[in-house]
Design a protein that fits this description.
This protein is α+β, with helices and mostly antiparallel strands and about 160 residues long. The protein is built from three helices and five strands. Helix 2 runs antiparallel to helix 3.
Length: about 160
């Protein structure tokens, strides 16, 4: 029996999945960051500015890694943004089979800490991140963050 007056649950206006591709070149890093920022604004996602800044830094790091380390075997990369009622997930996919691992902090190095940074931003926000293999032999590196900061912790 159906109760009168009940309304079926509908997705919130900002929910959805968006995907775009870009060449694996340096200029794609700021373009991806700006595209994600513009998408969040256009969809009216209720997210605090600190979380947006962390998310954009994650996008920059993941796209940079794909450009620097995967471009030879993957001249194109894909960025996906999935937004649910309580979370946002960004991922970068390339066709290179190498599964990266975060390097330990070596302060003498000038680079190589991007995945550590992604992991720290994600964990601080109460989210999770991982690397998955694709059916075609490539990989997807993703980070999912809650739209609201975890209870009891200050915002990013």
């Amino acid at each position: 029996m159906e109760s009168r007056g009940s309304v079926p649950a509908r997705p919130l206006s900002y929910e959805g999945v968006w995907r775009f591709t870009a060449p694996a070149v340096d200029v794609s890093v700021p373009q991806a960051r700006h595209a994600v920022r513009d998408l969040l604004n256009r969809q009216g996602v209720p997210v605090q500015d600190d979380l947006v800044q962390g998310l954009l830094l994650i996008v920059s790091e993941l796209v940079t890694n794909a450009v620097k380390h995967a471009a030879l075997l993957s001249p194109e990369l894909a960025v996906e943004v999935a937004i649910g009622p309580e979370w946002i997930r960004v991922s970068v996919e390339d066709n290179h089979p190498y599964r990266p691992t975060p390097l330990e902090s070596d302060y003498a190095q000038t680079g190589g800490r991007g995945l550590l940074l992604v992991r720290e931003i994600t964990l601080e926000a109460g989210g999770t991140c991982d690397v998955e293999h694709t059916a075609t032999g490539g990989k997807i590196i993703w980070a999912a963050l809650p739209l609201s900061p975890p209870t009891g912790l200050p915002p990013l």
